[in-house]
Amino acid sequence: MLKRRSTTLLLTMLLMFTLVVTTGAAAPPLSGVKVVVDAGHGGWDPGAVGVNGLTEKEINLQVAKALRNCLVEYGGAIVEMTRIEDRYVSLASRVKKANLSGADRFISIHHNGSVNPNHNGTAVYSAKNGSWQSHDLRNKVQKRLRQMTGLRDLGANTANFYVLRNTTMPAILTEASFITNPKEEQRLRDPGYLWREAFYIYKGLVDHMGN
Fold it and tell me: Whole-prediction pTM value?
């Protein structure tokens, strides 16, 4: 009789442990968080252009869409995009859409350019007048992107970019790499590489939110 009770108690404890673990694992880390994802440039504005013709606007959009998917599928977040196709959207329109959305965070996706084809590196920006949350998000995403790209650390910086200084929520702008570097341009043609970039931005946001 005692053996049966011990077995029953053990099975009950195992079931409770399984339920706790399952419940904890199923809880999405960004549940209820609303994020505006901004794919820089678009339409008549190509942004930076690689030596072999790859445009920043198309890479920004691919990463932005992959980031949206990561945020929704893995994080359980609510996502609003400033553009979902190759069209021009003014900076003022991007900011207005973000501010009216009631979003918790704003992430603008970009890829850098230089007249020096050998130059490459990773940088993330927050506004000079940004909140500590903006700076913390910038720092966390910069750390994750550096892990992913393996490129030179160009710093977690502040800048006076329009979309950063005029958004009302904590905001960052990513420059994961230089599309004008021929080797990097080739890497940016790989959808898997772009997906990993988006995933590591997502991981930085999860770090920032404390999850």
Answer: 0.88
If you write DSSP's letter for every residue of 178-209 in order, what string do you get?
Answer: ETTSHHHHHHTT-HHHHHHHHHHHHHHHHHHT
Nearest Cα to 164, choosing from 97, 84, 106?
A: 106
Tens-digit pLDDT profile for residues 15-46: 444 444 444 456 899 999 999 999 999 999 99
Return d(Cα 47, Cα 40) in angstroms, integer: 8
Residue 2 inside a domain? The answer is no
Catalytic one of 73, 80, 85, 175: 175
Please indicate, yes or no, if residue 12 is contained in any of the structural domains.
no
User: Tokens at residue 187, please?
Assistant: 């890497």
7 lies in a domain? no
What torsion do the CA atoms of 44, 178, 62, 52 make, to the nearest 10 degrees?
A: 70
85 is an active site residue: no
Strands 122-127 and 105-112, by their bridges, are unpaired
Q: Is residue 25 in a domain? A: no
Strand order of the sheet with strand 153-159? Answer: 78-81, 34-39, 105-112, 171-178, 122-127, 153-159
Per the structure, the count of domains in the chain is 1
